[in-house]
Backbone:
């Protein structure tokens, strides 16, 4: 039976909000399945939480609007996940959090202004196309965020507020179609679209 991560849990006569998934919580746990829809109360996901495809996460990964941080390697090699949307409150992503999620076919970025770091999507989709959607509220795409992702299609939502595309953001991405950059754009970083 799939496990749903709840918004609250009861212990004794107390009710507690679920705000974190702790480090290593489901790493390499192939004997259980967690429903890939997390509650809005969740604020952080710990290091290696689902590493190695733990908890058999699959399909559309719904992170919840309250999420603020994803630690390093949290979803590394979760190759059964096909889509993910990074919510607007997300402020921190750890190193290689999404590395090896090669089953992805759609990534939607809604987080307004993520910091630079080795925290992006380096996804090898084979011959399949990865749809990258930049939400209208996004102001900045971090350095190297989608670099080395194969067979990508990039779309900026109507009314985009994106002002900056970071250095090497789409370096060696293999973009498959013409890209319409938004009028709001002020800065395109060094090698942002090199070798596409």
Residues:
């Amino acid at each position: 039976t799939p496990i749903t991560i709840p918004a609250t849990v009861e212990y004794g006569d107390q009710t507690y909000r679920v705000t974190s998934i702790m480090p290593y919580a489901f790493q390499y746990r192939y004997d259980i399945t967690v429903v890939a829809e997390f509650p809005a109360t969740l604020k952080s996901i710990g290091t290696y939480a689902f590493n190695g495809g733990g908890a058999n996460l699959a399909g559309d990964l719904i992170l919840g609007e309250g999420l603020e941080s994803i630690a390093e390697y949290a979803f590394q090699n979760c190759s059964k996940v096909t889509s993910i949307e990074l919510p607007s409150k997300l402020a921190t992503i750890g190193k290689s959090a999404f590395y090896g999620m090669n089953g992805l076919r759609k990534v939607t970025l809604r987080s307004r202004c993520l910091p630079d770091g080795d925290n992006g999507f380096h996804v090898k989709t084979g011959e399949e196309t990865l749809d990258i959607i930049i939400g209208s509220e996004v102001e900045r795409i971090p350095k190297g965020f989608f670099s080395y992702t194969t067979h990508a299609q990039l779309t900026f939502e109507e009314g985009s507020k994106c002002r900056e595309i970071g250095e090497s953001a789409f370096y060696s991405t293999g973009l498959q179609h013409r890209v319409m950059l938004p009028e709001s754009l002020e800065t395109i970083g060094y090698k942002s679209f090199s070798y596409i």
